[in-house]
Amino acid sequence: MHPLNIIVAWVRELVQIGLLAVPVYYLLKFLRRTRGYSVLAGIFGIIAVAYTGTTLLKLDELGWMLDRAAVFIPIALLVVFQPELRRIFADIGGGSSGQKERESRRNAAEELHKAVMALASRRCGALIAIEREERIDPFVQGACHLDSPIVSELVSMIFYPGTALHDGGVVVRNGHIAMAGCIFPLGALGDSRHLSFGTRHRAAIGLTEKTDAAVFAVSEETGMISMAFGGRLVRGMGAESLRRALEACLPGAAEDDGGKSDAPRADDFPRVFEELAKNEA
Questions:
Q1: What domains lie within the chain, and their CATH numbers?
Q2: What is the C-alpha separation between 85 and 95, in angstroms, rounded?
Q3: Per-10-residue mean pLDDT, the chain, length 281
């Protein structure tokens, strides 16, 4: 074979490898920041162990079953990463619509910030759960469904003492007030950390023990703002830390610069929570 043909063949192979490797690299880099990444790693780990075992032990029947089951892996991945894929396609296809959605999220974060600060200044108790990737409906009781845009005055009115819904919690979903007057599960009293907390704070902890939601609570005794996540509570939040947390847990609220700034992203919320927990400690 002519040396030039060999070089062309090598270049063609390198181009194909690059076209496959670059998208896969950035896809994995994106997925590493998501909650589903651990699920993906677990799935492929189990598959690798199963295939290795069936090959070494010559378990032909089990190997045949694994080959047939592998057909359903793409469907399982679509289910696991449905929120992330929806976000990606919305950004890709959404010139004006994607920008409008991000603007809505930023407005939601700002309105919630105004409402929580106003409630804290008046020492009105409040409990606001922001749904992230996991649906929290199975753990919510007595909800009044609203599906309303987030307006600070509306949030403040819901928690105003004496109104029908003020004793319950509010659920924020996709940048809207989905439900109000909600009863959340309480954190277990067996945990000594919860003994000094009131009902609102125990409810915030209880819901975050069962879901990946972020829950904000305002104490009616002191006006102190707290945030719960993963069964843990950060107390005594200031205005700036509250704003940062809200922008981090509302998808798109701080993503208007192509990701070039240090503003928090929705999939960075666990990291933001850890930083705030350390700073507020």
A1: 3-90 (no CATH), 95-280 (3.40.1700.10)
A2: 17
A3: 77 86 76 65 82 84 82 76 68 57 80 95 94 87 89 93 90 91 81 68 92 93 93 91 90 49 58 83 55
